[in-house]
Amino acid sequence: MSGPSKILGETQRVWICVLKMSDLTGPRRRADRPRVVVKALSKRPGLDLDRWVKTSRRANRMRVVNVVYEAMPRPSQPGGRDCPFIKPTQKPEVDAAMKLLRQQLRCDGYTVNGDMTVWHLYIIELTPLPSDSGACTGYLYVGQTSQPLEDRIRQHREGHHNPKGQRLHSLACHRRFLRPRLDLLPVQFSQTFYCQEDALTAEADLRLAMEADGFVVEGGTEKLSTRRRELGIVSDEKATE
């Protein structure tokens, strides 16, 4: 016989849960942050959810070993213990809440739903401009990537395009590529970044740091204006107005 089916129009209370996975399911992005999965479950956080983790066949199949309560919504927040969502009425809100929580956990270094993506910064030395007066320390390109560094650097050096013909490289970096200069990366910029937002911010900060050391820098522009404003740095263009 088949199991019970859902009754049309039936509603269900669900909570946003963060479940710790066994390390047998794969490596961690960050050693001190476990592999987790974010789920909307009909088990209320507390005794009900803990019992489900320990006794449910589904939890066993998923290799769930515990509940990461500190990573879950607080009791009074939407999806928290005292504020469940109602499905299917609030399905869009459930999906949005889970998406936001996954992103927050990724930025904090958790391996979420098996996603192993991380970002790193890199520096490439460029050939001097024809108008170079010799007054600057040198010419650099700074970037961030979730690809292996050697692959990303090769894209710039060789001028790669995707199958649709779109550029995968910086024109300035490709035309003036001299050599990778990872040795120039300050220690605080050589770390692993766990979400692109943090990597883009660090990329802009790296550009500002290298400019402060006398380099003329390409790249790192996506958050550059924002970081200059936040740090109270006046750009050359503003200074000459």
Write structural notes for this entry.
The chain is built from eight helices and nine strands. The chain is of the alpha+beta class. The strands form two sheets. Strands 1, 2, 3, 4 and 5 form a five-stranded mixed β-sheet that branches. Strands 8-6-7-9 form a four-stranded mixed β-sheet, sandwiched between helices. The termini are far apart.
Radius of gyration: 24 Å
Q: Unreliable runs, pLDDT <50, ≥5 residues? A: 1-5
Query: Could you tell me the strand content as a percent range?
Result: 15-25%
Instruction: Tell me the major beta sheet.
Output: 5 strands, mixed
Please give the alpha-carbon distance between the first and last residues. 80 Å
Q: Which word captures the global form?
A: elongated
Give the H and E element order: EEHHEEHEEEHHEHEHH
Q: Average pLDDT across residues?
A: 92
Number of separate strands: 9
If helices are DSSP runs of H or I spanning 4 or more residues, what is the number of helices? 8
Structural class: alpha+beta
The percent of residues in helical segments reads 25-40%
Number of folding domains?
Answer: 2
What are the salient characteristics of this protein?
single chain, alpha+beta, 2 domains, four-stranded mixed β-sheet, 32% helix, disordered N terminus
How are the SSEs placed, and which strands pair?
Layout: E1 12-21, E2 35-41, H1 47-55, H2 57-62, E3 64-67, E4 85-87, H3 91-107, E5 111-112, E6 120-126, E7 138-145, H4 149-158, H5 171-175, E8 177-180, H6 196-212, E9 215-219, H7 224-231, H8 236-239
